[in-house]
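hi support,

uploading two proteins for the ticket. first:
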Amino acid sequence: MSELVYKTVNTKQELIDALNIRRHVFVIGQNIDEKIVFDLYDDKSLHIIVMTEGKTVGSVRLRLQEDGEAKLERMAILPNYRRKGLGQNMLTFLEGELRKRLATKIVLHAQSDVSKFYERCGFSVEGPYFWEVGIKHIKMKKQL
């Protein structure tokens, strides 16, 4: 695989690319309603993308709270780029960005089939499994 570039979204086109990744993974791939996948938080959030050969292949959204907590949402990587370390590297990059913004903790709702991935990346389970958009999830957190 060519060089990977992890970056915060700074242009309208980069945001469009990030949203297209999300559409591909969640709306098309998991049949989740667009009204849930896209919401009013998109314009107010920090978005991070991963690119290779000029193509965006992964994205994640972060909502910064006043109490130092950051909510990680809608992390998505195109199928052909999964299981190659992009997700772990994206988390490392976003943790650096959050520290710059003085965040102290990350929380997320992980789909149950990827909760072990987040555990390997230092997140811990917080509470029981629950259902969200018809998919089993679990709340997880990580101190920065």
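and the second one:
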Amino acid sequence: MIEGKARFLSPLVLAYVGDAVHSLCVRCRLASSSNAKAGALHSTASKEVSAVNQSLIAERLSAFLNEEETDVYRRARNAKLTHYAKNAKETEYKRATGFEAVVGYLYLSGNRERLSALFDFLKDME
């Protein structure tokens, strides 16, 4: 998909795609860096892609995002949600949705370099 089309997608659709992309990236990183069994990898991945953790990620990313990404984040964070995560506060879930939308936006717009830079930025902050 080209950048122009990704910009006009619903922020919640971007978050839907971003959730899958983030989950896949986390699973690939864990699988390539660990000899743990699948169940242990799943537990670790689940914690990393939880709304609570994604909310913390979103807070760290604020200085990293450019103007366009900040706009995508803000639109998704402020979107009207019909449900929230069981184990996260509403504000955490909204921030997590914003983070997922940015990931989805970068992926769908074909901006893999920026997406990779985003994940590298997060890795460096650990």
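thanks. also noticed: Residues 23 and 49 are 6 Å apart (CA to CA).
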